[in-house]
Design brief:
The protein is built from 11 helices and 12 strands. With 287 residues, it is of the alpha/beta class.
Amino acid sequence: MTVTPNTQIVALLGDPVSQSLSPLIHNTGFDELNLDMVYLAFRIEKASLGDAIKALKTFRFQGANVTIPHKQDVIFFLDELTERAEAIGAVNTIVCDHPASDSVPRLIGDNTDIVGFARSLREFKDQIEGQDALVWGSGGAARAVTYAILRELDMARIHLICRSMEVGRALAHDIDGSGSRIEVVKWEYSALSMQQATLLVNTTPLGMTPNTDTTPCLQPELMHDGQIVYDLVYNPSRTVLLEQASKAGATGIEGIEMLLGQATESFEAWTGAELPEKHIRNALAAQ
């Protein structure tokens, strides 16, 4: 890949970013479509987030992805939010709007996690529609997932398993104003919720490299066939949670599916082109 002064730059902002597959996904797409663009990962600590966002404008980046733990904090530094990003209060994609070559770009925050998550569950919609879901976690990814579960997948209710009840209740209020469709449950009291849920989703970093021996599920013996277990962790692709699901006869979905789904939406927002998914999957398989 040759980078020139005219090369458009897209950034990944987060902590950590060393294990991310996003640079491989997007740079493969740029190369396949002969686009003069490059995707670079930057480890950004919370105290430096504002400076990093200013740099997107100063250096006229094309856009950015935002990952753990900045999906909510980044909102304060943006000029505008899409309707769905505003609705859930979390951003994973920034589009730099360049109205004129000599003007300062406007930064528009979006959330493509919603589409990525819902897209990967389309084939199971008949199985999960009208049923209960369980979601571990209450961060930015959980906000996108809960929004998609209620608005895109038409599930009945969510059992939100949280370490902080205060944070969980804030999420429930923001996503479900009526307060009737999201039940906030303490982490250690998740047994009944697990038995009732048809869809179980891990939105936490538990199980992610380097802590690959961890899992959000305290009672794997309660999993059963007929359940779908979705782990948003994609490194490693086969997590402890997914191994637990397999032993219980449940259907497991790897985090790479959501990663590719949200990447497809982000890629199109930055380039106006469709992500060449077949080539991306081949590149990921060769890793």
